[in-house]
C-alpha cells in the first residue's frame, strides 16, 4: 500500500522549485537530497530530490531535471508516495499509521456493527471516516481515546464508544 508523504503545490521562483504540502512526520528524512520518490500518478515519477530548503514554514524542493518554472508547474498536484512496508511500526502502543486503520471493522462497545474505516483525516484533530451500510452517510469519529477505547489490529476491528447523536 502506498502512503502519501507530500503533495506538490505551486512553483516557487524561476529555477524549478516547488512548494510541498508535507504529510509526514519526518520531512528531513523523506525529502533528503538524493532521495527518489514514487508519485501518484505514477507516470510523473520517480522524482529525485535535488535540493530542499524551508522558506518560513513552507518546504521548497527542486527535483532533478526540473530547472525551470514551466517544467515545475507540470508537477503541481502530484502526490509523493512511499511504500507502507518502508515505515517502521511505532513503539507507542497508542500511535497508529493511517494505513493500519483503514479497512478495520468498527463496532460499538456493546458489539453492534457500525461500519468500516475508509479514511483518516488530519484537520487539527484526527478524524476517522467510517462508511456505514444501508445508504447512511459516512460517520466522522474523532480519533481520541475517550471515543475509541480499543484498536485491535490483529482482530481487524476498532471499538467506539460514541456519545449520543454522533452516529
Shape: elongated
**Average pLDDT reading:** 89
The whole-angstrom Rg is 19 Å
Distance between the termini: 29 Å
Number of strands: 12
Strand order of the largest sheet: 1-2-5-4-3-6
Q: Could you name the ranges where pLDDT drops below 50 across 5 or more consecutive residues? A: none
H/E element order: EEHEEEHEHEEEEEE
Structural class: mainly beta
What is the helix tally? Answer: 3
Q: How helical, in percent, are the residues? A: under 10%
Tell me what portion of residues adopts beta-strand conformation.
35-45%
Largest β sheet strand count, sense and barrel closure = 6 strands, antiparallel, barrel
Outline the structure in words:
The structure is a single chain. With 167 residues, this protein is mainly β. Helices cover 8% and strands 45% of the residues. The longest helix is centred in the middle third of the chain and has 5 residues, at 69-73. Strand 7 and strand 8 form a beta hairpin. It has three helices and twelve strands; from the N terminus they run E-E-H-E-E-E-H-E-H-E-E-E-E-E-E.
